[in-house]
Amino acid sequence: MGLTSEQVLGWSRVFVLLLGMGWAAWMDHKVRRVSNDHWLVWVKPAIFIWCLELLARNADWTVFLTASAVVAYASMSIIGRPTINDLLAGNREDILVSLWYLISLLGVILGMIKYSEVDALELLLGEATGMAALYWTTLSGLIVIFVIDLGWRLRLIHGGADAKALMWVAILVPNWSTMPVVTNYSSEVTLQLPPAISLLMWGGLTFLFIPLVLVIKNLFQGNVKSLSDLRMFWHSTMMDLDNVQKSHVWLLSSIIEMPDGRVKVYHNTRAPRRTPSEEQLAEKIAQLRLNNVEKVWVSYKLPLLVFLFPVIIPMAIFGDITVIILEIIGL
Questions:
Q1: Does residue 126 register a pLDDT over 80?
Q2: What are the start-end ranges of the H helices in the chain?
Q3: Is 323 helix (H, G, I), strand (E, B) or coil?
Q4: Which of 11, 112, 227, 245 is 20 to 30 Å apart from 22, CA to CA?
Q5: Is the dihedral of CA 22, 24, 27, 29 positive or negative?
Q6: Average pLDDT, the chain
Q7: Which pLDDT belongs to residue 330?
Q8: Dihedral sign for Cα atoms in the order 282, 33, 304, 217
Q9: How far apart are CA 94 and CA 106, in angstroms?
Q10: 206 or 260, greater pLDDT
């Protein structure tokens, strides 16, 4: 049986998702940084596939401009947004970007007017059809980008690369109808998280295995030598002091002075809220070395993209993880 055009576009999305996210995850793992150029390159196939899908579905111009608004909103995290001073200065690029924003906004507003007569409940349940459903589904991408952007600004999503990756996913896979889910886990649950948010949830699931891995590692390496180590061995591990500064870790051990003037090694259970500078880290290491400390507790800086990449496949097979969870618990 041959593939339909929707399936071809869907699997093309999965292929691009694997390549773009895999490359980003590798860079995030090696240097803890993903350049904006990466997203500028990989947003092109995402936009191209989205345009092909809208053409195949005979979308009108308001839907295309609404999709453009989604891309425009996400682009602010990469290229910034023009200010009044930029426009008054006559910068050609800023003027073109501003026109792009205005034209896209016009499409959003006119689309709202044109497709205002639609049942909201049918939209939420995925039962709406026709061009009105396509418009409102496309417009929902703005809400997804807003939620991701808000999570970034509130530090719920810690890294800029993580937020930009999720915005890119929201453009590449704007809704579940564009994702070739292999297994329809449940036909009864129709409310689903957007694919980008669902991918974040899938990635969060893999974080649950980290304590188990660390416990096994610490027990195997003999890092648990006292009862006090039990509060450390499930979320951190021990490392040679000489390797700390060249590794992507947070140093949890430090030297503190007791009220009676004695000094002792103290192990923090939490990583610092602000990453210390190289000079501050070197100073702590020097203090530990002066007190003959050779091994210290550290917490790995685990890049989120490394956890998002491997869950692309299960998401493509099973779909939204919340649907699975709700089905399992019987809701």
A1: no
A2: 5-31, 36-56, 61-79, 84-88, 92-114, 120-124, 130-153, 160-172, 195-207, 210-221, 278-290, 304-308, 312-318, 321-329
A3: helix
A4: 245
A5: negative
A6: 87
A7: 66
A8: negative
A9: 18
A10: 206
What is the four-CA torsion angle of 164, 166, 169, 170, rounded to 10 degrees? -100
Answer left, alpha or beta for residue 319, where phi above 0 means left and psi between -120 and 50 means alpha.
left
CA distance 294 to 219: 19
Position of tokens 């564009």? 178
Dist. CA 315–CA 322, nearest whole Å = 11
Please indicate, yes or no, whether the overall pTM of this predicted structure exceeds 0.90. Answer: no
Helix or strand or coil: residue 115?
coil
* Amino acid 184: pLDDT: 58
Contact between residue 189 and residue 330 where contact means Cβ atoms under 8 Å apart: no
Q: What is the DSSP string of 174-212?
A: -SGGGS--S----SS------HHHHHHHHHHHHHTTHHH
Structural domain spans, the chain: 5-180, 184-331
Question: In this predicted structure, what is the pLDDT of residue 190?
Answer: 57
Beta bridge partners of 200: none
Biggest CA–CA distance in the chain, Å, is 80
Greater pLDDT, 161 or 87: 161
